[in-house]
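Retro notes - structure team

What went well: the batch runner handled both jobs without manual restarts.
What didn't: labels got mixed up in the shared folder, which is why I'm recording both outputs here explicitly, each with its sequence directly above its tokens.

Job 1
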Amino acid sequence: MALELMRGNEAIAEGAIRAGCRFYTGYPITPQNELFEYMAKRMPQAEGTFLQCESEVAGINMIWGAACTGMRAMTSSSGPGISLMSEGLTTLAAGELPCVVVDVTRAGPGLGRIAPAQSDYRQVTKGGGHGDYHAIVLGPASTQEMAELANLAFYLADLYRNPVIILMDGMLGQMMEPVDFDLVKPLPAPEKPWALRGKGDGPRKMIYAAPFDDPGLIELNQRLNEKYRQIEEREQRWEEVQTERADLIVVAFGSVARAAWDAVQTARAEGMKVGLVRPITLWPFPKKAFSKLRRSAKAFLDVEMNAGQMQEDLERVIGPDFPIFHLGQGGGKMIYPDEVLEEIRKLIR
């Protein structure tokens, strides 16, 4: 076991490189600049390409070009930059091109500030760009998991030929924890017969941003919808902590799940029947976990650093009439274990 003490932003970058990422392009924006700087140093060492582009719009379109060749490509930004990438993301989805995008969220709306927040949840899970499309969205909660999910992100992107977004926040990006890269095993990359690598002796291949005729666009949408249905069925991931016979289920993702976990342990020690569900895939949302728990739990407590964006998904999969409470707010207000514990006590007693 070889442990390395790393920032979250650095761990996700190293995890991507070990997963085979050989093309990175980006534009500096806090709070993800350590990832950007790490890639500038490590990509040449890994015989990859690092490009500081003139804007996020340029960056996502450079990813388009690299992804067309079958290369594992990644970019990263924060909320305002992800907004600028939205047209590129929907076009990557339409072209069925695999890539990984890291969003280290800052507090918004607007330019906001660099305090930790989870205010990009709706932006990345509900599309962000135009048209009927989805990106797979992963939500790590530790530095170790950032390295591991970077590996998984490239695998899923290639497997489904689809963009994958890793959603973090400034807290996760900046905190330092030990990472064991011996646990990060590269997942196999599939063959890519669709990739543009020169004509050779074979037939000419083309990748379109979208078909230019109505029947073709309708057929593309039908094919994408079937792919998304398969992803929803196969790729739901979550973590459960002491949910068996729990009356109250706390639901949290990312850095807030760490505070929620601490509060749940204290509540359990005080004799309260409370558990935790941590969604790991934010899209597809892990509705399988909640369809089971709905039959045993009496209420859910949604804890997130925003105004309740994930609560909309909870209401969708559990039902709007089921008791679902929310703790948190936007603007960069961190949530501490004592605050979660206080809310648990209110709801159980």
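Job 2
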Amino acid sequence: MPGLYFEDLPEGRVIDAEWRRTVTEADNVLFCGMTMNVARLHLDAEYMKGTEFGRPIVNSLFTLGLMIGMSVHNTTQGTTVANLGMTDVTFPAPVFAGDTLRVLTTVVGARASRSRPEAGIVTFRHEAFNQHDVLVARCGRAALMLRRPEGAPA
């Protein structure tokens, strides 16, 4: 499904990403390597056995990227001009290798752009839940979204 235009994103609309993704140990190790994050809590299983978690925690920035990425195919694919910022990023519960995540996106605000008549600014709230329906990540995201071109089907 192509992305939604500004007009398709009224405040209050909730969009289910409609798919799930199991996080693997390889995801975490590769992401930590690519971002040069060598924190023991992500990579050292022996060390983590002695913590309250008992095992490595998936890098939270991977979780953030995955959460937003999982929403793209049925919200903003091809209709985003640019991300304008992310706010209120929280990780209420840890993600572990083997967890399966699902994502809900809620439109919390939408307004026409004052400087770009072909676009509007939409504020999304993304939420990721694990296989036990525990909220593991949340963030606000503002995006500059294209308006529907004249003559394009609704």
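One thing worth noting from job 2: The chain has a mean pLDDT of 95.
We'll revisit the folder naming next retro.
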